[in-house]
Write a structure and sequence with these properties.
Blueprint: H1 2-10, H2 36-39
Organism: Jeotgalibacillus marinus
Protein name: Protein YhfH
InterPro entries: YhfH-like
């Protein structure tokens, strides 16, 4: 059973920014959906 769970997480696509679509670096305990560039006001 544990092997199936690990396989599920290995096969997830990379996390992408909801705003620009750029790949995001995943971090533990980080639930943001926008990349740093899009979430930082200019």
């Amino acid at each position: 059973m544990l092997e199936n769970v690990m396989e599920f997480f290995r096969n997830l696509p990379p996390k992408q920014c909801a705003s620009c679509g750029e790949k995001m670096e995943e971090q533990a305990e980080a639930y943001g959906t926008t990349c740093e560039k899009c979430s930082t006001p200019e």
